[in-house]
Write a structure and sequence with these properties.
- By secondary structure, the chain is an all-alpha fold.
- The chain has one domain: 434 Repressor (Amino-terminal Domain) (Orthogonal Bundle), CATH 1.10.260.
- The longest helix has 14 residues.
- The two termini are about 15 Å apart.
- The mean pLDDT is about 90.
Amino acid sequence: MFTAKIIRKFGTQTDAAAVAGLGQSVVSKWIKADQIPGKRQRILLKAAKKQGIDLKAADFFDDDLD
């Protein structure tokens, strides 16, 4: 589950939600669906850069697309 790995880079679901300006329950839904909406990806990428978190656009895509 690549979404959960992205969220863990920010700490907890609550931490990631705060960065995105959302409630923790929304982030929980992302994890269950294993996807983050595009406009939220941008927000997380900007926050990660600002906080020195190693996060790249490629991290939002599942490598197992074969």
